[in-house]
Request: fold
Amino acid sequence: MVEIVNPAWLSMVVDGGRYGHADVGMPPSSVLDGYAYTALCRLLGYGTGVPVLEIMGHDFSFRVNMDLSCAITGARVTAFVDSTPVIPWAVFRIKAGSTIRVKEVTEGLRYYIGFSGMIDAAKVAGSYTTNIECRFGGYFGRPFLKGDRITLKDVCIPDERVIGESLIPSMKAPHLLRIIDGEERDRFSPEALKSLFEKYGDSWYKVSTKANRTGIRLEGRPLKFRKGVEQSIISEGILPGVVQIPGDGQPIIVLYERTIGGYARIGHVAKIDRDLLAHLKPLDKVRFQRIEPEEAERLWDEKTARYYDMLPK
Reply:
């Protein structure tokens, strides 16, 4: 059993997502950093689809009442088992009665913790992930609180494995996000499009303090529409990573808690950079680079090859 000592800012159960139900308005609510999630599953010897913990904030801690193994991926952190430092992106062993503490996050935002036992979580519509707004899945449909107890099933002790440093992505700000054209790109003025993709000047945006699992609001030079065009669209289905522009001209990057939207779509974050969205912190600087769909596919193929490099040899 795992007992939450300090739940940090936001900690919850997630997995690969609840897909296939957008027609009834049910979002995927998935893990935000799929690369870190895959690495965690492979470190612990699982296939993807198992529940893990997604955490934001310093001083997350928990206590265990059994011997087991654990791993931490995602954001770079300083962590300890009692007073002994542990290496992130690697399997480490824990003795019964020990307390694990993530003292601080040194790079990135969200980190992921998995165990060598299956988390006993509620499975809804084929997924264990937590839908906070509708309060289902995960641990009673909510984030963790101090004193919550997580039951683990089929606990084992896997081999000690490590993800090589070359396979751990950078999460340092400032961030470059590559995007492909959106459906309403032609509704924006040439000046707006030019400023969005400038390498210098005031093309940088700042992550707003309003960013959350639903979307990331950016603040910077407003993007102006062409004169005489509609600034909104009839609400229709949207996908994670779409960059929407509301009437105030400030971009919003949609994440994994929405299925429809009514703002003009200037672009889509390429899949190669979508995991990075999990690590955009308030006040981080962000800029965009336009690429063609063919380049986006090539970059994704290269990243997919790194997934195979993480497999135990």
Q: What stands out?
A: The longest strand covers residues 99-115.
